[in-house]
Design a protein that fits this description.
Elements lengths: L11 H14 L4 E7 L5 E7 H11 L1 E4 L27 E6 L5 E2 L6 E10 L9 H14 L2 E14 L3 H6 L21 H17 L6 E3 L5 E9 L1 H21 L3 E3 L15 E7 L9 E2 L4 E2 L1 H21 L5 H4 L12 E3 L6 E4 L7 E4 L8 H17 L25 H9 L2 H6 L2 H19 L4 H7 L4
Parallel strand pairs: 1-6, 14-15
Antiparallel strand pairs: 1-2, 3-4, 4-6, 5-6, 7-9, 7-10, 7-11, 8-9, 11-16, 12-13, 15-16
Helix pairs in contact: 3-9, 5-6, 6-9, 7-9, 7-10, 10-12
The chain binds glutamine.
Length: about 475
């Protein structure tokens, strides 16, 4: 929830009054109203504040359902059986704003943002929309009495480039914002510091708390985390955070990349997820802590059991692009096998069991390129599966998980990950058929596009040799 809106208010009438006050006092002219698409990107329309208040808050804002009919480059999918396709004539759907998400945009041109839910004209929620998918998973967890809490770490690269210069250079020889590898370095570089001062200041006013930033293990790579919150709020924040950093960096002539592995010689960009579970009845009690043991509870053991059992099933959601898999390599600080450990950064799951409040599980598989609504839904499905079936705690891995024998690898290509997801019983128990079909189709499409591509690597390797 935005800091602009008083958090305790849940009544729509009162929220609307506050939004009107914000619009007037800050002279907001345009409001971007959007939803996450299948890749977790913020898509929708800019509405005038007058139109939003007089019309769209009640009736929603209409747009073509093509948002789920094309890929990341806006190329239209060819299957006429999809939710959105030529065969259906691309009808309208509408976004109904979630009033709690209103945020004044301090770096904008008298603008604010809102996120909504996507409905069909008949009033039904769009089943394939990622925010619908996550909301349904939340409903399911709440019915069982669980309130999930998530924090999100994101790594990204900053380049001294614009969209135009990157195109002109044909994506080669991009200049990083810092050209020295200096992980955890505390040397202040004024031109970088200014950007991060602005980002943290603006994000704070925007209602997205960021505690720190650091130089990561790549030239021009940084890490900045989104503080923990409930699943929907976290996913909303991650989507807006990515958009915000992109916009603020662009003001300084910089381009941000959340690609999982932009260069094989540089560190990958992760989207590590930190997670714990509270009881709905006592939201301050972390159910992962067992007081009598001064450590991990049986709920936490079951969750780890469920997560490990289904890590391969959901790898396609944690690593959704062709490029995601170039990040998953030995020694890259990411998990590559189905393992858990205590404060072990070589395993897929890292248990952080400091104290009764902050005991949690870090999932180190997801990349920064993943859709946060789907990574959180997948995480929740695995956790609920573990709890509902009382899955035993698997053996823990100590030491270097990259070199130990007998460990099961997670799927290491998109094709493999799609195949496992398609055959997953658990996925079909926790996600709707309509969503799974759409998601799997879109990932197969990515894979097929790549299969037909001749890469630079292939040319350099084979051209005059074979
Ligand atoms: N902060 C870290 O642990 C490094 C993570 C690593 N860059 C990854 O891609 O997973």
């Amino acid at each position: 929830m935005s800091v602009n809106i008083k958090p305790q208010v849940s009544d729509n009438k009162e929220l609307l009054t506050q939004i009107k006050e914000e619009i007037n006092s800050r002279n907001v002219k345009m409001i971007s109203l959007g939803i996450p698409d299948m890749d977790g990107r913020y898509k929708g329309k800019f509405l005038t504040s007058d139109y939003l208040i007089s019309n769209a808050v009640k009736k929603g804002s209409f747009l073509c359902d093509i948002l789920f009919g094309w890929d990341i480059t806006d190329e239209i999918y060819s299957d006429n059986g999809l939710f959105s396709c030529w065969g259906n004539g691309f009808p309208d759907v509408y976004i109904k704003p979630d009033l709690k998400t209103f945020r004044y945009k301090p770096w904008g041109q008298n603008t604010a943002t809102m996120i909504g839910d996507l409905y069909q004209i008949n009033g039904e929620l769009v089943e394939v929309a990622p925010r619908t998918v996550l909301k349904k998973m939340i409903e399911r967890s709440e019915k069982l009495g669980y309130q999930f809490s998530f924090g999100y770490e994101l790594e990204f690269y900053l380049f001294k480039e614009t969209d135009q210069s990157i195109k002109e250079k044909d994506y080669r020889n991009l200049i990083p914002a810092t050209s020295l590898m200096n992980t955890y370095g505390l040397v202040e570089i004024p031109e970088v510091q200014i950007v991060f001062d602005e980002i943290t200041e603006y994000l704070k006013e925007y209602g997205i708390a960021v505690e720190s930033f650091m130089y990561e293990a790549g030239e021009g790579q940084f890490e900045m985390s989104v503080n923990h919150s409930d699943p929907l709020d976290t996913a909303d924040k991650v989507m807006l955070y990515k958009t915000a950093i992109r916009e603020i960096a662009a003001k300084h002539g910089l381009t941000v990349s959340f690609m999982a592995k932009f260069d094989e010689n540089m560190s990958g960009s992760s989207g590590h997820i930190h997670q714990s579970i509270m009881s709905i009845d006592s939201p301050d009690v972390n159910l992962y802590w067992d007081r009598s043991k001064q450590g991990m509870s049986s709920v936490m053991e079951n969750v780890i059991g469920g997560l490990l059992k289904t890590l391969p099933d959901f790898t396609a959601m944690y690593c959704p692009t062709i490029n995601s898999y170039s990040r998953l390599v030995t020694g890259s600080w990411t998990g590559v096998n189905v393992t858990w450990g205590v404060d072990n950064r070589t395993t897929a799951l890292r248990v952080i069991s400091t104290d009764s409040k902050s005991i949690r599980i870090e999932n180190r598989i997801p990349g920064a390129d993943a859709n946060p609504y789907l990574t959180l839904a997948a995480f929740m499905a695995s956790a609920l599966y573990g709890i509902e079936n009382e899955i035993d705690l698997p053996n823990r891995t100590d030491g270097d998980a990259y070199v130990q024998e007998g460990l099961t690898p997670i799927p290491l290509t998109l094709d493999k990950a799609i195949e496992v997801l398609e055959n997953s019983e658990v996925a079909h128990l926790y996600f709707s058929e309509e969503f799974l079909n759409q998601f799997i189709y879109t990932r197969k499409w990515e894979s097929e596009k790549f299969r037909k591509t001749v890469t630079e690597w292939e040319k350099k390797r084979y051209l005059e040799r074979v």
